[in-house]
Each structure stands twice: as structure tokens, then as C-alpha cells.
Amino acid sequence: MNKLYFILIVLFLLTACNHSTNLELTVSKDRIQFHNWHPTPKDTHLAKIYVWNTYEKKTNNVPLAGQFKYGSNNTFEFVPNFPFMEKTEYVIIRTTKEGNIKQRFSLPQTNKLPLTVEGIYPTSDSLPENLLRMYVTFSQPMKTSGNLENIKLLNNQGEEIEGAIFNNVYELWDKSQKQLTIIFDPARIKTDLVANKELGRALKVREKFQVMITMAEDIYGQQLQKHFTKTFWVTPQDVSPPNVDTWNINAPESGTKGELKIKFKSPVDKMSLYTRIKVTNQNNQIIQGKITIGNHEKLWKFVPLKPWTKGNYKLKINARLADPSGNNLNGLFDHKTGSLKSEKEGEILNINFQII
Amino acid sequence: MKAINKLPVLALAFLLILSCNSNTDNKETLVENSDTSATTNSINIEEYTLPGASIMTFGPDNVLFVGDSKSSVIHALSTEATELKEPIPYNLWGVDRKIAEELGVDASDVVVQDMKIHPVSQEAYISVKRGHSPDAKSLIAIINPKTNDVGFLNVANAEHSKVDVLGTPKDMQNFWRDIPASTLTITDIDYHKGNLYVSGLSNGEFASTLRVIEYPFNGKQTKVNGIEMFHTVHSQNETRAPIRSMIFQELNGVETLIAAYTCTPLVTFPADQIKENGQMKAKTVAELGYGNVPIDMLVFDAQDFEGNVDKKLLIINKNRSGSLISIKDLAAANKGKGLTHFTQGPEGLPIFPVPLSGVMHIDEQNPMMLTLLRRNIEKGTIDLLSEVKGTYFRLSDFINEYDFADYEYPEGADMFKNYHNMARPLEGFPELARKD
Fold it and tell me: Pick from B36, B104, B240: which is nearest to A93 by CB?
């Protein structure tokens, strides 16, 4: 008898205790659902949610802005004005008769692919002495500041070449925050500029160099597991600007979604391949399609959304199309005044082709 | 016997109640303001946010121009402000944490982009991104020097016009997911006599892009084709290097665009060279020093210890101390032919290095002070501080002989004593001002 009495009391107290303390929560980016809390509308103001300040080991003073309300399925929920952030701890504090009840929670972490460097363009392992630009692509969207300090150019002895990479205040990221543009300091590439005379070009012909990424952090706080390096040999400077006359164009057959291909004699800048070449039909309408690149950026392929139809087409090439050294269809990056083909950069060149 | 049997049961019950209670916090709770019935400061996401906000500048009638590199757009937003005439300094340490509190994020998730001072209210406008993700929204935090309270610009209530600065066809840019599109990172904007001047850098092309946009926006936009920097030594070379920071100033009666480039030449262009598809030819008036990125430029009137007013150009650098130049010296240098020999600098005209390292952004606050947004190297926070023009440093950054209570100023050191007594209260340490 005594034992039963004892067990009942313990059970009762545990239930009562549980009821008043632990909220069963489901947290997603845009709401928290409370499964065992059903306050009356006039009581909904009795709870506030705060960010846990990791620096000062206390909650922030200002509660999160948002709305406590009954949602679908008659579940009580909180909808924040801004979404909950990953890797941030929150505290909900409820005012009850027993005092303030706190409970910490955070967004459940989703499994993410680890952060890796997916590639560096140009992809070739021999690059010209006057290389201007590289693109680094990451597997995840990245934090967009403080990265250039962690990207280094090393010579074959493993020594860092200081000042080789152009450090702008704002880093050049694409909209997905997965691709970073790196520019080799143009002052050291262009002959006659102070830095070139004093320091010479950063890259030396017939020597081996490495671009090393020592640290990088994505927006989820994941870091590179190990240093990423791209090793390459340096070839003599590239002083032949791209030339459409040397391009080899292969047109597919009508009625298919065959690839329209352009083969280049030497590598073309990755961003130029994606943005400087367009295809139009005889009515001058742009043909929508998907571009892929290959063969160390010496191949451009275009697959249309709809099958090709017979007729005359044009490749419209913006003369800003450049090679990795910044030489474009209009002339050399390191050119003498007056030596450009046209005074106006960005003229459109047309190449006709037929689909039969 | 029965009583003894009940004792453990009661004790256990008591223990459970206690443990139950210990899950609830008593009065020393986690929050300082444990009054949870207070109304939440509701920041409505739609009303206060922009897709992106980086570089800012104030224009006519207190309109705030906000560069949005993410969508290649410049916004013009009306602002309302109450005039503040007194010089009230900012001494707000950890302004990033304060903004984080208001936004309901950890301080590491506040990405500070730019800071400008409202010309009428002396309020600091700080553009921030809430979080690091590509879809993170931007807001403009407004901090009042009187209260140090953080508010946000209500974008929905402001008169709002905008202009697209990319100027490239949008057709194929985003047609396929994951296909890289070219973006333009806006590196500076400046408003001058009815025009907005925008410099930028593309992720796909290394070229000078200076755009001139008429304001109010009417669709008219001029893109300068190329900018030639003529050094006598390398006069045969054009450089496509992009302008990092720029400002308009009249020099010798001629409207002149002063521009700083990375590395760090300081050049001038007569404003009438800025024409559609035009080639601009610059004169290199100074080399501020190799291995450096200029961050911000400012022209203001400053008074020296003798009370003489002189117009100054101040350039804040990423890798070097601030460069202070008298506009008189700049105008004199601009009459010459510019630098005619190689140099690693600083050279070309009198450049006074001022101790402004760690400064992320700077603006003129009032006739007496500048406002700085400065990285606190020890704490890792960002501080919003004011500094007196003329000295360009904060006394409280250092501990020195003068700070000891038994230090006696020698005769003839009134200038130091007066300065210390003025600076200490201004920097938020009135108790340290010496009464003797």
C-alpha cells in the first residue's frame, strides 16, 4: 500500500514538473511550434525569445521581434520577423506563477556537404607569366570578406610572393557566393608601371608555383578541412589576343538539340565563355540554351532549349571576351595607347552560321 | 513506525518539488530586463530591408543614395531628421553587438558595409547585412549621438527611387541556375551637382567603369569608356585599373574629380572630360605609397591650434596610416605636370600621415569632429567613435605620462593641458579631466 502511494506521488510530481518546465518544440527557420503549450490569447505576451550572447554569456537585452499566435492545426507558434539563424542559440523565457522559466533551443543542424574547393580556373596546369585572373569555386556559399588574406601565391621553394594578389576592399563574388574572382596585381603585370619595375612580375617563366588557400569559411561556419593548392608551371607571357578567325565552329543538324561547339586555339576566360557569347536567329532573337565549357576552357558548347530549326544564325561576340591574361578581342591588356582595334570597348562581332 | 515509513516519501516529494523549482529561474534570470511583458520592438522585415546595401552617400535634400552591388542598383531614399547643432561625440564601443541585439542575431552575423553621417542630424547611418547567406537582407541602422539608441531606416515609408547600373542585357544572365553571371561590385559613389558618379569593379572583367547618372533618375546614364593615367614615364600605357575612391573638389577654379587607385596613386581629372564613351586622361599628383588600398576619401574644413582654417583632403587606407593633404597643396600640385619619375612614395606633394589605422569608414560629423567606424583589434568588436579634427587621434587609445594623477603639467604646457581637458570628456571620460 505504501509503495503504491509512493509511486503515485512520484508520477504525479514528475508530470506536474514536466508540464511546467519543458516545452516540446519544433523549430524551423520561419517558426517555432509549441506542442504542449496552449496559452489563452491574453497570456501570449508572457513569453519572449532572446538570442544567447556567446561573448558575454548572457541573453541579449532586446527580445526577438515576431508574433506569438495560433497557427494551423491549432498549434501555438512563434513566427519571427527575420528567420532563425543556424548556429545561433536562443532562449525562450516564460513568465509563470512559479517564476521565469527559461529554455534554450536552436535550429536543428541539417547535414551539409563539407566545404571544399571544387576548382580553380583556368584549369590548365601551365599558365602564362602575365596571368591576370583566376576563379575559385567552392562547394558551399561563402562568407564574403577576409578571404583574400588567406589566398597566397607560393614559389617552388614554398616562399610566399607578397603583394601578388590584388587586394581590393570588396571581394569579387558572384551572386551565389560560391565563386571568387582573384586578380593578380595588374601593376605587376603591366610593363613600365612602378610595381612591375621595382618588383617584377610575380610569376617567373619555367618555374613552378602554387596558389594556396589556407583558410575559408562558408556561411554555415564550416571551414576547409585542409589547405587547398593548385600547382602550375609558368609559360612565357601570352601576347596574342583572342582572334575569332582562328575559332573552329561546329553547327549541329536541324530538328535536334545537338551541341553548337566552338573550339579555341588557346584557353578563354571562364566568365567570358559564359557571358560574352550569344546565339541569335535570323530575326535577331536570342536563342535560349545552356552553355558548358571544357578542354581546359578551349571548348564552348551550347545546347538550345528547343530543337534547332533550319536557317541562318549568328554568334554575337562581345569584344570584351578575354583570355586569362585579360587580352580581349579588341587588343592586348598591356597595350600601347592607340593600338586597340577600336576606341570603343565592347563592340559586338557577328559570326554567321547555318543550321541545315 | 508508520511515520517513519512516510518520512522518505515526504522527503522525496520535497526533493522533487525542489528539483522541479530549480528548472524555473528565480529573479536573477538570464535577462537584465526580466520584465517580459514589455512590448517587443518589432522590426518588420518588409518595411526595413533592402535586397543589398553597401556603399552610401548623402545627396541633395538629405536623400540617401545606397549602392546595392547584389542587384546592381542604386537606391535613392528620402530621410527625415531633426537638426542637431551641438557637437555630441560618439563613444559607442561594440556598435556591431548593439545592432546585432536589435536584429536578433549573434554579432558575428552582422556584416558592416559602410557608414555615413546625416548632414542635418549628425546621426550615423550604418549599412549592414543580416547574416552571411546570399539571400541575407540588408538594413540601414541609424544611431543618434544623443541617445546612442539604434533604430533602422524605414525603407517603405521613405520616398524611394532606384536605377539599374549594370546596363547589360539581362536575357541569359540567370536563365540557368548555377551559370555564372557577371556582377558589378560598386566601389564608390559620389553626388555632385545633379549627378551621381559610380565607380565599380566587375567579377568578369578588369576595367575601369565610371558611370554618371543624372539625379532625379530619368534614365540618362553615361558610361566613360576608359581612363588613362598618364605618368610621364609610362605615358604610352593605358591602365584599365578601377577607381577605388573618389570625390569632387574645385581646384584652381576647375571642377575636378580626385580619385585614388589601389597601390596608391592619387590622380585628378577635369570634370568636363567625363563624357559618354570618352577617354579620360588623368594627372598623377601624388603616390600615397605602394602596397595599399585606399578605403575612403573626405574633404572638410579643419582648424589648427592657431585657429587657422584650412581645407583638407583625408584618405583612409587599408594598409597604411591616413593621408592628410591640404587642398592648397593639391591645387598647387595640380598646376604642375604631375609625377615624372618612379617612386614607391609617399611623394608628389606634402602628405601628412595621421594615426587612423583600423578605421573601416570615416565621415565628417560636424565642424569640430570626424566620426569613425573602427575595428577594435583587442576585442574584435566595431566601435563608433568621434575624433577631433586637427589631432586625428583619441587620447584614450593610449596610456601615457599625462594620465597619472600625480603628473604635473610643466609651465608653458597649457596647450597640452587644455587639449587633454577637452578630449577626455569628449571621449567619454569626463572623470579624468584635471581640475587643477
Answer: B36
